[in-house]
Structure prediction request, 183 residues.
Amino acid sequence: MVPVYRKFWLVLHIVSASAWIGVDVMVAVLVGVGALSDDSARRGLAYQALGSFLVWPMLVSGLVCLVTGLVLGLGTKWGLVRYWWVAVKLVLNVALCTLILLLLRPSMPEVAAYGRSLSAGEAVTFDVSSLVMPPVVSLTLLSVATVLSVYKPWGRIRQLGGPGGRAAQRARQATAKSAARTP
Prediction:
């Protein structure tokens, strides 16, 4: 990939990952306000904001991060599954986007309705304990992905049939054994 294009995609990747982290921090703050505030109107507003605005900014930033990561992986020396740190980041990104769609999005209308009821002063009960885990898990995994990007640990993934792959190692071992048996 031409350096100017690589830099463009890299900047877009970093900005989208930063936006994703920012959305997660906002979610953590809103969950904290909703859980800890004594003012029911403030709690209701926090839950309304979560229910109304959480999913799409988070999902869009995650998908942009995924697409830019794919472009960078396919267009640079790092590859998609050439290095462990890239493969792990790819898996983390896909897993987090999937969790947003399958676990987080379906409950958001109920969270928003709960917030509206709280703001209206109604006495309602709703278990919001499940809202604590998404920002904790997401911020942790996004932090791991950031650390992987900086330190690039674990080296290359060995490929079967390559010079360091298992098939080549078995062939070398078989050759060495047969050479040791020959007088």
Q: What stands out?
A: The mean pLDDT is 91.
